[in-house]
Specification:
alpha+beta; 8 strands; Alpha-Beta Plaits; 2 domains
């Protein structure tokens, strides 16, 4: 997505409702589905992209369709361009200086945290892991110099803490290379 574009998500506790939400968001605006799938533990996520107005309208329709089953949702205007490759998986393992990891109880909040973190400091996203085989949680990993990673982790964690969904956060200066095997 280019600068000026937005992403939005509706995360629901109902798989059946997830299909309804996906239908509602695609009918409400000129948006593209980025991810539309089940996630652990029995939840569903619909992640879309497009221009800010279209994504905003579509997410509003998705939240309305999701009703009482909505676990979390957001619209991020001007999303940082490195968020997409990180959501898709690790594109490469950078030279690790310091390692920051932020863990959350919702997929939506960890994507918001990743975007805020990478916009706040000179860091590089490694991966954004979305709820598969980890009980519905999500986590983001990033690297850079220790001061930048500390700043990014604090900023990203604050986004999640405001929603009451932070599990934990760590910063590891000069991590041992063998600990990152989880990322590949």
């Amino acid at each position: 997505m280019n600068n000026g574009s937005a992403i939005g998500i509706v995360e629901t506790s109902s798989i059946a409702r997830g299909f309804l939400i996906a239908d509602a968001v695609t009918k409400a605006g000129d948006v593209k589905i980025i991810v539309n799938r089940t996630i652990c533990p029995g939840k569903y996520m619909v992640l879309i992209g497009g221009n800010v107005d279209a994504v905003t309208s579509a997410i509003e329709a998705g939240v309305e369709a999701g009703a009482h089953t909505v676990v979390d949702q957001f619209v991020i205007p001007n999303v940082h361009p490195t968020v997409f490759p990180a959501v898709s998986g690790v594109t490469h393992l950078p030279d690790l200086k310091a390692l920051g990891v932020i863990e959350a109880f919702s997929v939506a909040s960890v994507i918001e945290a990743a975007d805020a973190a990478v916009k706040s400091a000179q860091v590089e996203l490694i991966t954004i892991h979305l709820a598969m085989a980890i009980g519905g949680k999500g986590w983001v990993s990033l690297t850079g110099d220790v001061a930048s990673v500390n700043e990014a982790v604090e900023v990203g964690s604050e986004v999640i803490e405001r929603k009451g969904l932070l599990v934990d956060k760590v910063v590891i200066p000069a991590p041992r290379p063998e600990i990152i095997q989880e990322f590949v």
